[in-house]
Write a structure and sequence with these properties.
The chain contains 9 helices and no strands. The protein starts with a helix and ends in a 16-residue tail after the last helix. It is elongated. The protein has one domain. It is mainly α.
Length: 222
């Protein structure tokens, strides 16, 4: 995967825009080798997917990852900046796409507008290429897991709860541990289930579909 500066050749005409400074910084400092895809996919499979099922919002997933893992990976903040600016890029690109044909290509204003539009297309493409690479790896893992029986989040939780509620297992636990300790274990299970339900409510309340967009081709000069 190319570095940010290599992908952003041709964006000089919009680098000075104040609203895009944070995004350019994220792309300039992005290094492919600083993304630990193995750790991200492992966290998705064994933690995030277990509690919440299939991922539907990449931003929520990355925030959850940084909180739970307490990671200092340099690219995670860069990914979040890209996600925060993705909608802005789509709007800007669409506005320039409409405005370019209205400006004469022979005037300085028209040439500047077309140059900025082409730069926005390059910038948008660079952002999407990095986000799509991360999403593609997660999607591939999800498809791999779906082909395996008994690997859905609901199936795993159901199996665990069934094992916990098996009468024979409870009787053995009662024989091996004092009554007070058994009560503490029961309370711990209740708290754990309550936390799971709370996380699920928060997840459903905040998730939104990962929005994709397509880069328009430059409009023909009038």
């Amino acid at each position: 995967m190319a570095t940010g500066r290599h992908l952003l050749r041709g964006c000089e005409s919009i680098r000075s825009k104040p609203g895009l400074q944070e995004l350019f910084l994220a792309l300039d400092t992005f290094r492919p080798e600083n993304t630990n895809f193995e750790a991200l996919i492992s966290f998705y499979e064994h933690h995030c997917r277990y509690f919440f099922g299939k991922i539907e919002d990449l931003k929520d997933f990355l925030i959850f990852y940084t909180i739970e893992i307490n990671t200092d990976e340099e690219n995670i903040p860069n990914y979040l900046v890209m996600l925060n600016n993705l909608r802005k890029l789509e709007v800007l690109e669409g506005m320039y796409f409409i405005a370019c044909p209205l400006a004469s290509p022979t005037t300085q204003e028209g040439q500047k507008m077309r140059s900025q539009y082409e730069a926005l297309v390059i910038l948008h493409t660079a952002v999407r290429s990095k986000l799509e690479e991360l999403m593609r790896r997660i999607t591939e893992k999800e498809e791999e897991l779906q082909r395996l029986p008994g690997t859905s989040a609901q199936e795993i939780r159901t199996a665990e709860e069934s094992a916990q509620e098996t009468p024979g297992a409870e009787e053995e636990a009662a024989e091996e541990t004092p009554a007070a300790e058994g009560e503490r274990l029961t309370l711990r299970r209740r708290v754990r289930k309550a936390l799971k339900r709370r996380f699920q409510r928060i997840w459903r309340a905040t998730r939104s579909l990962f929005r994709g967009g397509c880069c328009h081709q430059p409009p023909p000069a009038p």
